[in-house]
Amino acid sequence: MAQNFNFKQKPMLSLMAKSAAMVAGLFALVIAVLLIGDHLRLLKMDPLNDPTLLELRDQLAESNENTDAVVEQIRTYDLYARRAFFSNQEERRAGGGLLLAGTVVCFLALKLSNHWNPKLPDIGKSDTPDHWELNSLFRQLMVGAGIFLVAVSLFFAFVVQSDLSVVLAHAELAEQGRQDAVDTEVVPQASSELAEEMKSNWPSLRGPGGIGHAHMDDAPISWDVESGEGVLWKAEVYVPGFNSPIVWDDRIFMSGADEEGQEVFCHDANSGEELWSVTIASEVEPPEVSEDTGYAAPTMASDGQRVFAIFASGDLVALDLDGKVIWQKNLGVPDNPYGMGSSLMADAQRVYVQYDHSDAQKVMAFDGASGNELWRTAREHISWSTPVLIESPIGTRLVLNDEEHVTAYDPTNGKSLWQVKCLGGEVAPSAAFNGSNIVFVANEYAQATALKLNGATPEIIWQYDEYLPEIASPVATEKYAFIATTAGDIICLDIQTGAVKWEQEFDEGFNSSPILVDNKIYAIDLEGMVHIIDAEAETFHEIAVIEMGQPVYTTPAFVNNRIYIRGEETLFCIGTNKH
Amino acid sequence: MRKKIYRPKEVRNPFLLLSLCFLCLFVAINSYAEFRFPMPEFSTGYEHPAVHTPMPANSMVAWDAVVLIVTLALASFLVLKRRKRREIFWLTIFSVIYFGFVRNGCVCSVGSVQNIMAGISNSSYGIPITVLIFFAAPLIFALLFGRVFCSAVCPLGAIQEAVAVKPVKVPPAVDKVLSVFPFIYLGLAALSVTMDAGFIICQYDPFVGFFRMGASFSMLIFGAVMLIVGVFVARPYCRYLCPYGVLLNWCSKLSWKHAVITPSECIQCNLCAGSCPYNAINEPSADEEPESRTRGARRLGFLMLLLPVLTAAGFGVGGFLKEPLSRMHPTVRLAERVAGEELGRYETTNIESEAFRGSDQPIEELYAEAVEIKDDFQKGSRWFGAFIGLVIGSKLISVSILRKRDGYEPDKGTCYSCGRCFKYCPVKATED
Predict the structure, then answer these.
(1) Which of A18, A26, A130, A462 has the most CB atoms less than 10 A away?
(2) B380 with B238, same domain?
């Protein structure tokens, strides 16, 4: 017999080895449990945010004198924290070594136990299938394994989706849209002409595109309502409404409504005379609205041939410039705790409606001429904000705010092109745009956010969370972003960095959105004080403060070096007869 | 400014206890590796010293090559001449201590496959001579004496051999099916290297975390699972994952002198049949043919015709794997992450995307780069699929060829020369 063929059993030794293995195993287990307990304890610790340390830091931040003692205390505390941490690391390292040693001893003892209690050879042939049967079984299993591999591959191919492809598809779509605009000859020319016309008019809330930029170079900076100096005319406004005036050529359009009825009216821009007034019939019961919103909060919009108005009832109407109703429809009575607040926006072809209410949120585009719905896109959150149309480097975008997001849509088809989560609270302010590549949004209970239009989706370049607006929309220039708050503050931030350039507190709050006019900011507070501020200065520089004599909740219109201000009861035209 | 801390029946059957110990071991080691303490904050005046990365210590690497060759020679001697399981096991313990804990599992023959592939696919990539030795020496020894590297030299095999205290047999047919996975891993490694996506064999080395007493959470989980499974299923990594094992298997099949169970003539006593936990002992063929020659030949012909079909099918299916496989590449992962952030899928940035956004690289450039890499992966994935189809087809053919065996023999490809079977053979060696 071969000398190797030795299966001598040594049960006592084997039992001893097993016992040793158990002891070593238990030892390792105890060490492991201790180490895990220590780890869990450490996870809960936050030494650098320890309350005592934070208190000391606050002390240091607040105290101007005798900081040496506090600094020394902080250093000592920090040193203790580090010393404790590194001592603990040493203990853990030692524990790891003991754990390893225990485990090694455990396995060696088990090996010895096996050695002293060897497995005896099987006598007789096993009842396993023979080699050929096994191969046959293998072939069957291999087919199953092959099918399994294909299924797993297809599963992963389906599950792993590419965000990059989505982003690139959006970018391609945007590029295609731009290319289409370039390829089409007639429409762009018309659009281009209209865009220029839009700039020389005031077609919507906060002017062309709704970004708060006025295109005039000699805006009045001094007038006196009481004496009438610098005031071209005044006209009484009889119908209530918080909507702001829009202007096209020589006509000013506004709407008004109460529980009894809805109206659109037009004034002559040169004389202030009311040219026409049209009652808009409604077939629905007006909803409950808050006093601060009323039944005619949304500002009208114009495409140059028509004007569009929407009311708290959900009635959307288009009229020609002479007051003839062209089409009218009801979009469903808004279910909204405050009432309909979003104003309209229009371009050459479409009128856009942001309809973010409690039951369903959506943005829609209607053909301006026919009223046919061109597209609608579902949205996710309620809002009282107004769409803005921005001319970004990668094309025209319809930008909307809501309770959580700022979202850009392709105005031609309503496709969502990008979305950034940076808002919160009940959003009324709309987005601002610096005219080149930065979108700026802000709302109370959230933060202000500057979004750089960098590629397919903007990049958040900075955020600011101190003074924030509730109602008035911010305005942005190439250098600065301005926020006017309901509490009566105006804040100027560096548009590139978010650094606070200046903060100024006023006596009254702002519902009216500030407007950029010829390097000046015009902001009107709730008591009707017009603040004209240098928009280029690094520090606060108020050029003029002018009293309107009555509360102003609306945003003025700036056209042809005139300012049209809708006060609580009066429509003012500030400027001269020079046109 | 405040900073956040970066989070950072027992005597009769002690195997359950062992498993628990390993589970605790990986959690405990992981906790040690994961916890970090932030740097002190200096508000003014203090200049951080420049970070110096020490040069790698090359002196030991040449010595490692010498130790490798000597250990291989010794393992060959023990397997072929001494035929003592105990001696082979002690050499195994030496290897796990030296190549594992002392040298931290690097250089490693298993990982060296990637260096060789990188050298082949990229002419500018230089393969260090030591790495070449670590790659070639075990294969040369396999061509001469079988898988003596696996028996007692490879630290990954050695640590598994050390914990295999209660090995059970995996059903042989299942074992053979699972043997496809090392080919898949080899294919993935080749794809990753040729696409410049990194050395995944090293990234997912399950045991290096133990050798170095610290690793990422996922690697420690992987290693702990392998060791716990390895208590009952001997060498799970070697058998069902090791990509280098594929090459060793091929070389060992052609070996000049392989370990044998019986030192002279097999008397077919069947005593050794149950001794191998790796199903690496082939039984003698039956006297009667299992089926008619015509039927066997017809099947073989069908499978040979099926081979190109399976290869083509793999090529087609591989085309669907472009997206998941391209995620192996860090640039693609970053681009996908950034794109996901742009789409608002993530609430915050991660460390990679934050670093990217802080860099000067335009986002469009990153996207373009990722798209180009994905296109390459499209082709690579197809070839990967074709390779797997070829492997499956080849395995089907290989089991359909009848081989005559007169006695119990180790399967030259899958035998790890561990020596367990030696003492089960009652036949005495004939005197030369």
Answers:
(1) A18
(2) no
